[in-house]
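Researcher: Next sequence.
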Amino acid sequence: MPAQAGTLFDPATLNGMRLRNRFVRSATHEGLADQDGNGTPALANLWRALAEGEVGLVVSGHAYVSPDGKVRAGQLGVDADERLSGLAMLAEAVHAAGGACALQLAHAGAHAAPLPTGELPAGPSELILDGKTICTAMDCEHIGRIVDAFGYAARRAKKAGFDAVQVHSAHGYCLSQFLSPHYNKREDEYGGSLENRARFLLEVLQAVRAEVGDGFPVLLKMNSQDYLDDGLVLEDALLLARRLENMGVDAVELSGGTMLSGANVPVRTGRFDTPDKQAWFREAAGRFKKERGLPLMLVGGIRSADVAEDLYAQGICDFVSMSRPLVREPGLIRRWRAGDRSPARCVSDNLCFRAALSERGLCCLTEERERDKAAGA
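Model: Next structure:
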């Protein structure tokens, strides 16, 4: 991998989208949409703070493309034209602070919430966990409806003023499930070989590109591996990346793990305070960059400016993505650029997600507790 010129703080461009730097806020469930999935002032304020903190690209939390792909209350939706005004408010908040934003398009598949009708969610195959059937298998007609839903969602994102879309095919959500032999036991054209397991994703990417046109950035989030028995492995991910170069994908964000992956879930807990504990998918990213020409965003445990810049300088990635550090410190990138290069104050305890799943919405509970303790001292 050749060394790269410049730094992460230099401006960058992706298919015409101008970014103030190469730092990305990776998608994070915020729990701040209203009961119908519309954007709210609270969510707009959160995104504005990230842009004011000089994050180059703000990627939204997973926005469901159809009601049967919704995970939980407070999740942003992009499933209907009625969402457009709320989505536009969110994009405008980021732009007003000089940032750029991408809407992450998602469907939860097997891990979606049960529908109000009582129907079980649907995924690539029937899934049984702890002796209980949690989803049924999609038929081909259902798959076709979801493909269309991704395309229509991308069109709405562009109309609402977003600068890009990111298709979510990681972490054991619907498109990731189809790629993974652990979830996908199908025997039709959507199961078996990697070519068949990737068919759904490639159809989605084709539909998205058809709706937004060639001059609009289409990003993809994908797993390097699932860390599951019979799950997606790195060799398959690298083979898939070859196809992505011909599908109009402008950049890939590389992650790993699923909600069933034990210690290797996408949001691991622990103190990642030394370089060897950071950048969990560094090796996979290095392989990707050696073999593929797509711009690469790397997420996973990055907590220091030195590690981030080393990853970029060595050509391991083209952009650095972070999630939880920017919950506690929306101004982290501005702080690093101004010269305070001390590591992110995030302790990776995942209490922020406890807040996101409550009525409060995404925030750092640990910071609040430390502040309250100091005030009472």
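Model: The chain is about 35% helix and 15% strand. The longest strand covers residues 100-106.
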